User: Which sequence fits this backbone?
């Protein structure tokens, strides 16, 4: 895989399993106060019938962990927007969940103006809860469907577990005084990267995590964000990990039941975008999008 630059655009050439090559154009756009990475599929593979897709990352993370999935979907002919960093430009001592939600709302408004068509939203962890709120707000005229990957649950569904409570106790001063929260290595390895192979790979991923708002952490851990399921009328796909140590499996089942959906359970942890078999998982998501959304 390699890339070349031209007029703020990167051309990425990827090697396919069958020996062929696919060329993908990649641009970095600024949507208000948020940087968004846009992946353009090859012209010969563009699927005009398939809506464009937006990816929303979770706590401590960024768009970097969606790269493989974005490339996969792009090779299938789908235009993909990836939010680079919701924390960008924020004072984490004052930021809360709705700060991030407002950013994503503005991004979707702009995408809709540019595309003049419905979009699909994939959200991971915190991004999954943001995605639920997006579906609640915009309705079926804007949103073709949503994919909730290891999603943080809304109010009424508990996200708390013994392991999460134990991890939070390590950061009580930050949580009490709303200081920026940096997840510790032990909690990261046990809760987020428990299914990731190789110590070097784990360390590389850990170093990419960024500080998070303590307010957001408390809002999610205590399930304080309500979502009216009656207003979520688009298609919903729930993707859960059998080995997810951060979110209880029952929470993912309850989310699926809330939206009259059937959860898809994979033998992965909380970070299926960087775990193996990540391509198999995104392929299953793609097939669901292709045939059901």
Assistant:
């Amino acid at each position: 895989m390699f890339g070349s630059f031209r007029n703020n655009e990167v051309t990425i050439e990827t090697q396919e399993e069958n020996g062929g090559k696919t060329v993908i154009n990649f641009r970095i756009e600024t949507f208000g106060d948020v940087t968004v990475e846009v992946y353009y599929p090859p012209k010969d593979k563009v699927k005009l019938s398939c809506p464009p897709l937006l990816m929303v990352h979770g706590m401590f993370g960024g768009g970097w962990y969606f790269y493989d999935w974005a490339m996969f979907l792009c090779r299938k002919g789908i235009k993909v927007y990836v939010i680079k960093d919701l924390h960008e430009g924020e004072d984490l001592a004052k930021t809360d969940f709705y700060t991030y939600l407002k950013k994503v709302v503005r991004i979707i408004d702009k995408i809709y103006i540019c595309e003049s068509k419905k979009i699909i939203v994939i959200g991971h962890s915190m991004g999954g809860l943001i995605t639920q709120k997006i579906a609640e707000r915009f309705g079926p005229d804007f949103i073709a469907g949503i994919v909730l990957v290891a999603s943080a649950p809304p109010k009424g569904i508990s996200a708390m577990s013994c392991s999460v409570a134990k991890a939070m106790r390590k950061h009580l001063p930050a949580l009490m005084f709303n200081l920026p929260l940096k997840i510790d290595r032990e909690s990261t390895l046990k809760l987020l990267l428990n299914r990731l192979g190789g110590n070097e790979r784990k360390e590389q991923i850990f170093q990419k995590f960024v500080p998070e708002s303590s307010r957001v952490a408390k809002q999610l851990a205590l399930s304080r964000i309500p979502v009216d399921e009656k207003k979520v009328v688009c298609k919903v796909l729930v993707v859960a990990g059998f080995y997810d140590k951060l979110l209880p499996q029952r929470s993912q089942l309850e989310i699926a039941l809330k939206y009259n959906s059937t959860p898809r359970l994979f033998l992965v942890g909380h970070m299926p975008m960087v775990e193996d078999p990540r391509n198999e998982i995104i392929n299953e998501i793609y097939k669901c999008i292709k045939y059901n959304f």
Observations:
- The domain at 26-292 is CATH 3.40.50.1820 (Rossmann fold).
- The chain has ten helices and ten strands.
- Residues 170 and 184 are 9 Å apart (CA to CA).
- The beta strands are 2-6, 9-15, 21-31, 34-40, 53-56, 80-83, 119-124, 143-149, 235-241, 264-266.
